[in-house]
Amino acid sequence: MKNKKSLLHSISAAPHIFWAVLFIVVPLIIVIFYAFTVQNPDGSYTFSFSNIASLPDYISIFGLSLELSVIATAVCLVVGYPLAYIMARSKPKTQKILVMLLMLPMWTNLLIRTYSLMAILDNNGILNQLLGTSFQIVGTKGAVIFGMVYDFLPYMVLPIYTCLSKIDKYMWEAAADLGCDTPKTLVKVILPLSRSGIISGVTMVLVPSIRTFSISQKLGGGTFELIGDTIERQFVTGALNVGAAISLVMMVLILISLTIMNKFGDSEDGGIIV
Amino acid sequence: MKKTVSLLLLISILSLLLLTSCANSKETVTEVKDPVYKRGEVVSLNVYNWGEYISDGSEGIYDTNKEFVKYFNENLSEKYGGITVEVNYSTYPTNEDMYSKLKNGASSYDVIIPSDYMIERLISEGMLLRFDVEKDIENFHYIIDSFKKPYYDPDGAYSVPYTYGMLGIIYNKTLVDPLDIDEEHELSWGLMWNEKYSGNILQFNNPRDAFATAMYWKGLDVNSTEAEVWDEALELLKEQKQLLQGYVSDEIFNKMCGESAAIAPYFVGDFLTMVDKQPNLDFFFPREGVNYFVDAMCIPISTKHPSIAKEYINFMLSPEAAIANAEYLGYASPHSYVVNDEDYIAYMEDFGYEGPNGETAYDLLYNNDPATVNERYNALFSNDDIKDPACYRNFTPEIQSRVNTLWEELKISGSTELWVHITSIGIVVGVVALAVYTTYVKKKRSRFYRERDKASRSAK
User: What would the pLDDT profile of A246-262 be if each residue is shown by its tens digit?
Assistant: First the structure.
């Protein structure tokens, strides 16, 4: 009885299924189609593995994207965890204001924020003018990492904050009763309890920073590329097939790494995708 | 299960349909007819142009598109059965971007303004509408004779010239030592390879122009059909990559005006726009040779409103619009009315630019004889050292794909600093160690509890 769906049920689900098929499944099929074909001069397509075979050329770019996003994620965690902790421990009214302040930059478009960062960090930008110097920041890898941290920090703080604020405050008293001092409580009680928050925070920062493209173009100056830039350039210059192959491999790799990460998350309230 | 299978089947049929419909649309149509217009219909004309390439009404100046709409709706509406028109204007940063957008067939445009070599390519691929330029465009008689039937469109049947100009190097007078420009290096492209300005040099973010800077420097043919020549240029560009602040297109305006970069190759018209905002900038034409180009208005074969597109092109050639655009763009105009207009000449002469030998902006653009445009673009500033400037010509498909491959190679080349490797590997190792340690501790702990339970149970 339970498995039988009512007519109303299927009707109400229809628009969502239609949406998902049209905008998720069909594009995926098109990506797969392009990834495994090459276009002949007369406009027809033939099946080929040549796109996949050309991928080893891009390993160094992929490695760089991975390295930069790992560093950015680590910085986000180191900066974000104390912030989330402070937020979770403050008064409810202050908490609201802090969350609001954290969300505020996200109301502005990411591209616009990146452009503003460019104006601040440029050789003759606001920062260099204030300091009276002219050292180069834009065009270095550090600038790209900074841009990633700046743009994705809220995605790290918010899940950890949610997780920390759910922890019962009597945990502290219990820990103290059993002879834990504050640092020990943090390491032995609070940190393990917030593990699911950390894992979803890490996922939410790591994945978008691997595939980011505008940040590295603007703040990296275009002298080095991340994998997102490469894919974008392939599509803009009309080399759809190679671009599709890279995207496909990226999706598979992200899927694999998310599955591995989920193994470490709590199965009940990990709350991440896959 | 059945449901999933049928769903998948449906999806694959759907996507196949989508793809085949794309393929069908690529078939060439030689003639495009106007649709039947209904009275009161609003027709939108899709114009696709370079960024910053039309007088756009900012700061109260002439708004070309708005004026066209006004002109059309007042004077031409009845001719087309009482329709009103609106202009849907969008921009692109490079010829190649425009090409791939057009080739994809995802969107249709009615008027485009590509450069010479791209027009040649579009013609050879049958992507432009052929029309009787002299008859269909009433104002075409304004075009200077030497621009009629030009090298990129020998039949004179696809394009109407909009602007022309030259490529050169823009530099910041306060950041670049004058000795590095003329005394020792004699106005050379080599300035872009000068290690003294490492981190302060910009380069084009498109293969055609970026390769050209290296090729002009070393006296290579920018239209070469030999692969080795391109390989040689690639080596130069790879060497230069270490010194660059970035590969840029439209960002160049902010970077140069904000004095964040010192040296950049760009077009003379854009230099005039920049020097208007940042008087520390100056410009020179490298003596080894420079690119000379024409940008012209064309109608793609995918147009839906060919006649209105022609009206638009015609309007762009009307004296008022042509002068406004020439003044706004700062590029040279192939329009005979504009170049002889006293107000325009006066405007360009006191543009606020003065070159090292007292040249005005007008000299920079026109100190040459437009009549000889097809044979030789005269050396500017009476600097006879400038060799014949080469125009870009369309590549053969083999060279085109070769250049794309080399560009790809240039873009993905490069070395990463050691600290990036060390930090990231350190973090990964740390995380893995932590994970292993915690699982180990967990296991040890659970074993301890299990054994204790066992012990207490057996004690009972």
Answer: 999 999 988 888 888 77
